[in-house]
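Input for the complex:
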Amino acid sequence: MSIWKGALTTVAPRGLGVRGLVAVIAVLQLGGCATTRVEQSRQSNAVLGAGEAMVILGRSTYNDRETEESFTDCLADILRQGSNPIRLVSEDQFKDDLYPWFESRTAPTNANELGRLFAEAGVQAQIDQSSIRYLAWIEGDTVTIDKGGSMSCAVSTFGGGCFGMSFWEQDASYEASIWDLKNLSASGQISADANGTSYLAGLVVPIPILARPGNAACKGLAAQLRVFVTGIEE
Amino acid sequence: MALLCALLSSCAHTLTVSGRIPTPLIEPLPVSIGFIRPVDFSTHIHREKLPRGGGDWTIELGALQNAFFETLFDALFQGVQPMEIAGCGAGDEGRGVVASCPDGFVRLSLLEYAFLPPELSGLQFFSASTKYQVELLDAGGMVLDTWVVVGYGKNEGGGFQSTEALNAATVEAIRDAGARVALEWPKQGNVRTWLDLIGVKNDPKPIM
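Predicted:
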């Protein structure tokens, strides 16, 4: 299954003073161009039952990258709301309740290790008590892949301003691996890739036109994740 | 002038590390231990002046690490008695030694704490590490095993959120070290031998 989403917005400032300020604020509320691609593979058709919950965990590895906390927070905020809200157990609560089994270096790396983990004293009981059915591991990040242009700003006793144009292109790539804690197996994967170029135009006042591919990937992944665990198409 | 004061004060950072202290979900080893820590374990303060304008840092992590490992050891062992020295010999009264002698002693000390801000690492996050030494002593006070464990943590953030990011990285480093103590230390060869000697069945399980 693939979903493609895109949006393109251009804004030109009209002048300075109140009108200029209004234009800047309006620009900040709008976005640049971001293209999102979401793909899913599914290994089981099970869905969340009544009262069952899900937990979203960000993978943190010990290299120079990790899944941003802001991304998992974004997913959680979206999934808790909407027409089919999902009961989520927070990452902090989950890690505390199951300490030391889900720390960065002790957490299971694949669903095959769940059986051994659930044999540990108290683990199964804790999961049952919280009614957690699904665990979604989020892996990925947003990186700047290109940037260019130039802008200079100056201030004097007569005033100041910025002139020029700069841009940066970002690529957001995330994958959710969903584990079924009832069947102790992997349920499927959803990946979301978004790409967008942001601009900063200096026309006396600097005017940003932001693409926010990370936000686009979050929305795309959250929408598909909701369908995946509830079985209800929006 | 106000701006200058603000800039100057931004070069000095003071952080009292704080965070949640989880109760480990582990089966306690059916042994009693005397828990020994250096006197400054609970008051440890790390002071460091970073190069290239990184500022002066004062990081108070003693209180949190002390509370953290007290909770951890309470869960890891069936009985824990805070003690100042190892041994149950005569004449130890008044030095933290109690009438009932524990099965052994565990001496925990912080060997090293280190951190790295994004400005120096070139990465986008604060990183912190804690190096602990865990010593196992028998009931007579003889050292049976010395194990060093390093915990690591990182947290994205910088600028005005630098102390919050370093706090989170430090807490993660303490948690990481604690997790390894809980899961790996009982599987160390000398520890297993000691447990076998006092009649404890301790089946090793592979670390995940």
